[in-house]
């Protein structure tokens, strides 16, 4: 559990128990000191990823194909088309209302 | 702050990557690339071979994104894949051999083996004197920040064995450091 505590992998309740225990246990404090030294060494020993590996890491991953745009989308006329559709729907509705009113 | 990404941001990227979002995938894997690279370097020495295994790992993770269930931590899952890619590499390289990763490493690095009588005893030297299996365990616990259960899932040994190996490692390190 000490390693999980140092790696920040414990929930709040367990963290508090570890802290409380360390306050009263010399052996565990010595163990924690060893583990901290080990963890610090490990973090310093991590090598940086070379630039060529960073740049080529995803070369084998297939790239998503760009979606084909409609002519309307390409000409940026979609908002105009949507407005005209709305006018058409409104007129249909008004026609029905007139017919119902006539009856 | 641990090496693991903020879990909320990470789960958003995982969800997007699983739907085929390349940018989200590269952002997501970018946060784990250093650990993956160093894990591969623990087992493989040639720069070109390491590069190939990094690429194959990325492809395998991408291919498996939709099936990542979230039962294990994401880092545990990707390091499990990385380990399998390292095994595949050795299997291809030594096609007719049944030698394990560790036996092969021992023969490849024999000339670089740490010599106590020449080098100063410190934490770095103490770790260098550990076996390859022990160094891997130290890496997974302190660099990948995995729990014993997660380590057990990756290296496929019971969690009790992981605990006792770690106990032995700490005893060895303590003995080395007490000589300082």
Q: Please count the helical segments of chain B.
A: 10
| Estimated helix fraction of chain B | 55-70%
Order of helices and strands of chain A: HHHHHH
Mean pLDDT of chain A: 84
Which structural category do the helix and sheet elements of chain B fall into? mainly alpha
Radius of gyration of chain B: 18 Å
* Mean of all residue-level pLDDT scores of chain B: 83
Q: Return the string of H and E elements of chain B.
A: HHHHHHHHHH
Low-confidence stretches of chain A: none
Strand content of chain A: under 5%
Structure description:
The complex is a heterodimer of chains A (103) and B (180). Chain A is mainly α. Chain A has one domain (2-102). Helix content of chain A is 71%, strand content 0%. Chain A has 6 helices and no strands. Chain A has helices spanning 2-6, 12-24, 26-45, 51-56, 71-74, 78-102. The longest helix of chain A has 25 residues, at 78-102. Chain A starts with a helix and ends with a helix. With 180 residues, chain B is mainly α. Chain B has helices at 7-18, 22-30, 33-43, 47-64, 74-93, 101-108, 123-128, 132-142, 148-155, 159-178. In chain B, helix 4 crosses helix 5 (74-93). The model of chain B is unreliable at 1-5 and 104-121 (pLDDT under 50).
Q: What is the strand and helix layout of this fold?
A:
The complex is a heterodimer of chains A (103) and B (180).
Chain A: H1 2-6, H2 12-24, H3 26-45, H4 51-56, H5 71-74, H6 78-102
Chain B: H1 7-18, H2 22-30, H3 33-43, H4 47-64, H5 74-93, H6 101-108, H7 123-128, H8 132-142, H9 148-155, H10 159-178
